[in-house]
Write a structure and sequence with these properties.
Number of strands of chain A: 23
Oligomer: heterodimer
Strand content of chain B: under 5%
Largest interface: A-B, 36 and 28 residues
Strand content of chain A: 15-25%
Number of helices of chain A: 16
Structural class of chain A: alpha+beta
Low-confidence stretches of chain A: 1-40
Shape of chain A: globular
Strand order of the largest sheet of chain A: 8-9-10-1-11
Structural class of chain B: mainly alpha
Number of helices of chain B: 13
Low-confidence stretches of chain B: 1-21
Number of strands of chain B: 2
Largest sheet of chain B: 2 strands, antiparallel
Strand order of the largest sheet of chain B: 1-2
Mean pLDDT of chain B: 81
Order of helices and strands of chain B: HHHHEEHHHHHHHHH
Chain lengths: 567, 348
């Protein structure tokens, strides 16, 4: 959920436009054959995937970053999951392990029924108790990297995970009940009308208690998906082979065409780009998690390359937050001046130009329910210098220096320079502070070390405004009066309305309420939305059905990929 | 080096390095000081003259950078989207590569050396301003190294005993230090913490200061060793003995008697240290610990351009050649100065 912890790695999860399942109707009991999107290629063969670094976690309860999520999709199944239908360009919620689900009218109790014939890689059956156990693991202090929703939503206050205090006297989290082997009931501490989307997070994946090795489970999680781990050398290679106990008939999400995936970690992006452009004998069946860099975009027009290009977008949005703890930025006119002053087209070019970024006017994705075009400021993409200068005079700005914080990586710095130049053009002095990527967000969360202007981004966890507006503009749910994890502007406008809406149980009202609230808050200019990232990939010539999954960081969708000819 | 020299005087075989102080008193004698001889030799050395002219030109560019940039009319930090006819300068569909010009560099009659990809800043203007950073840091760092090295070397050599032992070990430590690694680690920390600890805003003045300081701080030890060695032999010389027997204090002897005799050494070392520091500054900027955006420096230009080498090779070529010429000129001049000051050097 933190945006781009490392370049191009963003957490993803839930999704967009088409929330098919209705509120309490329960999902359809459709566990038919997978709906293939493109032409399904031949079965078999080995696909090589390059990634510039190893992923952090494969343990389902800790897996919450886009790159590991994509690998996780191959080995870990969840209750529900989103599938990207490339033909219809829609993201569809499907039942994964769940055969059906329903909720009480207050959206506080959700019951999931599991499908028949689900097995782990060793052939033992997947039972409801394992889902309970998996969710319980995420309460443990060692497993905080994953999605926070189990311990945020489940009604078992004070519970600290299965490893201490004898797992609450053997009872575990009392907010999860397992009436039989195929049924799991979640009792929530609040109304969550979109819990079926929450259920797509990997934190709800089953873990057999007998096989749990605590933090070491990360290296070899027991597979529930079409592939299992054959070998894993950290920072070097991960080899996945077919899991014979996975049954395609139960899985509407995964095509699982290749027999084997080899992940190679550590090769620099530029090197991998060269290999994929060249399409040498060893790389005809290769793909990369890294998109093409700006300097090589022109090469994708080449005759031998252009048919192997996969372009995608993702659900994340970038913005620059105005830190309202700083006296200068408490001034609404000053914030508005900066809003109008930013030339988002040069910002986009700093992020690689039109094929790698697109200007946005909202932090809500434009294909999401509740998105409304920005109507208050109506700032053109190039900015409005005259208006900005006038506002600056009104604000009484006298040339004070503002600091713009950015992660210390190529494109981020280039974009920051673009912002700096466009603000300089209206007469605002901006200093760039580069902060190492691995502690960028923690630096900006500390009031003491946060900069005046904060570049940030957000990818929603599932398709609901409830995972966009409150996390970016609301209070922190864990500590009162503290800005939320992503509320870098420290805006506190509309918090009371947000608290009211948190109790709303009508989906449509929740959406329209949050949508209106967002528009209302944005009138105070707490941040300026900048761009969304686009990705351009080049794949090997033997790769079939290379499509990217916008819901998982826009990475190449490994669940759909196939080979033209088994190698 | 303001000593005038008359060309018609026959060249002298060269006096030992105790020249300057003594010859000042014996100016009526036929022989010329080492300085005069060296100057005469330098003036005859074509390479030295060309190098010196180039260096003066580069210094002039650095000093008059704002005027020069006024001629082409593009401030170094300005993002340019369109040329004067309203045509786009960059192809934003293809990653922001410049349109037209030689090998995708966007060179034109307006942008003489092209524009930077992705943002359209004028390469010529940035190159001109980059000269300032390179020279300022290199000269500042060299000055600090020379002052530290000379003082510590002279004190160590003159006083001997425990002072010498202490300072010599310090030199050993400094020389065995992995200085580049240390500089890389130190610079961002100092710049980041400067604000919190010292109350200095993290702006380019601080960055320049830090760069000069680290280059100077890690550059003095080698010179100090040479100076110490020379001081050891100089302090036993008769003119030093004489000064001491007349009641001169150590400070007087060090700065009035010994220092003038070290000037040839210092001169050679200075001209050789400057190009080293220019390269070091470029390397630090290349590694991202140089001055801040958007101020241009050759090292950062080279770093940015290296990504684009395939699609836009000229972007890398221009800062590269500027760095190359500057370093070469200083090095060749340094070599010439060393040869000219070397009493044993054969002359043609």
């Amino acid at each position: 959920m933190k945006y781009a912890k490392r370049v191009g790695q963003v957490i993803a999860a839930g999704v967009t436009l088409t929330l098919v399942a209705t509120a309490c109707g329960g999902g359809s009991d459709d566990a038919g054959s997978p709906t293939t999107t493109g032409t399904a290629g031949a079965k078999g063969g080995t696909v090589t995937v390059y990634h510039v670094n190893d992923v952090e976690h494969l343990d389902p309860q800790r897996n919450f970053v886009t790159d590991s999520s994509m690998i996780g999709k191959l080995i870990t199944r969840t209750l529900t999951d989103y599938r990207y239908d490339a033909k219809a360009k829609k993201i569809v919620l499907e039942n994964d392990l769940a055969a059906s689900y329903e909720s009480t009218p207050d959206f506080k109790t959700w019951t999931f029924k599991l499908k028949d014939g689900l097995k782990y890689e060793d052939g033992s059956p997947i039972v409801a108790a394992d889902i309970k156990y998996g969710a319980e693991r995420s309460f443990s202090a060692d497993m905080q990297e994953g999605a926070p929703y189990a311990h945020e939503y489940l009604d078992c206050p004070g519970y600290k995970g299965p490893y201490i205090a004898g797992n609450n006297g053997g009872k575990g989290c009392t907010g999860i009940e397992v009436p039989d082997e195929k049924t799991v009931v979640f009792k929530l501490n609040r109304a969550v009308p979109t819990f079926e989307g929450t259920a797509s997070m990997k934190v709800w994946s089953p873990v057999p208690k007998a096989k749990d090795t605590k933090t070491a489970y990360d290296n070899k999680p027991v597979s529930t998906g079409p592939y299992k781990i054959e070998s894993y050398v950290r920072k070097k290679t991960l080899v996945l082979v077919r899991n014979e106990n996975w049954d395609q008939k139960t899985d509407p999400l995964r095509n699982a065409l290749p027999d084997k995936f080899i992940f190679k970690f550590g090769d620099a992006e530029a090197t991998v780009d060269q290999r994929l452009f060249a399409d040498g004998a060893a790389d005809k069946s290769s793909v990369s998690f890294a998109g093409v860099q700006p300097e090589n975009i022109a090469k994708t027009n080449g005759a031998t390359v252009k048919d192997r290009v996969v372009e995608s977008e993702d659900i994340c949005r970038r913005y620059v937050a105005f830190n309202q703890q700083k006296p200068l930025l408490k001034n609404q006119k000053m914030r508005e001046a900066l809003y109008y002053g930013l030339d988002r087209t040069t910002y986009r070019d700093g992020r690689g130009g039109e094929r790698l970024a697109a200007v946005v006017d909202s932090i809500i994705p434009d294909d999401m329910d509740g998105y409304k075009a920005e109507e208050h400021f109506k700032a053109p993409p190039e900015g409005d210098k005259e208006k900005a200068k006038a506002l600056l005079t009104e604000a009484g700005y006298k040339g004070e220096k503002l600091t713009l914080g950015t992660a210390d990586s190529g494109l981020a710095v280039k974009a920051a320079e673009a912002a700096q130049a466009s603000w300089k053009a209206i007469g605002v002095n901006v200093d760039i502070r580069k902060i190492p990527g691995d502690n960028y967000y923690s630096t900006q969360q500390e009031d003491k070390s946060a900069t005046d202007l904060i570049t940030a981004g957000w990818c929603y966890d599932w398709a609901s405004l409830a995972t966009v507006v409150p996390p970016v503009l609301g209070p922190d749910t864990t500590a009162p009066n503290k800005a939320a994890q992503n509320n870098y502007g420290r805006s506190n406008v509309g918090w009371d309305k947000m608290a009211e809406l948190a109790k709303e149980t009508d989906k449509a009202k929740l959406t329209s309420g949050l949508s209106d609230l967002y528009a209302e808050i944005m009138k105070t200019a707490p941040l300026v939305p900048t761009v969304q990232d686009l990705n351009v990939y080049v794949v090997g010539s033997n790769i079939d059905n290379g499509v990217a999954d916008p819901n998982t960081g826009g990475l190449i969708d490994l669940t759909q990929i196939g080979l033209k000819k088994a190698n | 080096m303001t000593l005038g020299v008359s060309e018609d005087l026959p060249p002298d075989g060269g006096l030992p390095a105790d020249g300057l102080a003594e010859t000042a008193e014996a100016k009526q004698i036929e022989g010329r000081s080492l300085g005069q001889i060296a100057w005469a030799r330098l003036k005859k050395d074509k390479i030295a003259v060309i190098s010196a002219v180039i260096i003066l030109l580069i210094i002039a560019v650095a000093i008059f950078a704002p005027l020069i940039v006024k001629i082409n009319g593009f401030p170094p930090d300005q993002f340019n989207k369109l040329d004067s006819d309203g045509n786009p300068l960059l192809n934003t569909r293809d990653g922001g590569i410049p349109i037209g010009g030689l090998w995708g560099s966007g060179t034109s009659t307006e942008h003489w050396l092209g524009v930077e990809p992705q943002n359209g800043r004028d390469v010529f203007s940035r190159l001109v301003y980059g000269t300032r950073v390179s020279l300022l840091v290199a000269l500042g760092g060299t000055l600090i190294a020379i002052v530290l090295g000379t003082v510590i070397g002279m004190v160590s050599g003159y006083f001997g005993g425990w002072v010498d032992t202490l300072l010599s070990r310090l030199m050993d430590i400094m020389l065995s230090f992995p200085s580049l690694l240390f500089i890389m680690a130190l610079t961002p920390v100092v710049a980041d913490r400067g604000q919190d600890l010292l109350g200095i805003p993290d702006d380019n003045r601080l960055r320049l200061g830090v760069l000069m300081f680290v280059l100077g701080f890690f550059g003095w030890a080698y010179l100090a060793r040479i100076v110490r060695g020379q001081t050891l032999s100089l302090r036993e010389r008769e003119f030093v003995e004489a000064a001491r027997s007349l009641g001169a204090g150590p400070m007087y002897v060090i700065f009035k008697q010994i220092l003038p005799n070290l000037i040839p050494t210092l001169l050679v070392y200075t001209t050789l240290l400057i190009p080293g520091n220019i390269t070091a500054e470029a390397a630090l900027s290349f590694l991202g610990v140089g001055i801040k955006e958007p101020t241009s420096s050759w090292g950062r230009m080279i770093a940015d351009a290296s990504d684009w080498i395939e699609s836009n090779p000229l972007y890398l070529f221009f800062p590269g050649i500027a760095l190359f010429i500057t370093v070469l000129a200083f090095n060749l001049l340094g070599d010439s100065v060393r040869d000219a000051l070397d009493p044993r050097a054969g002359r043609s």
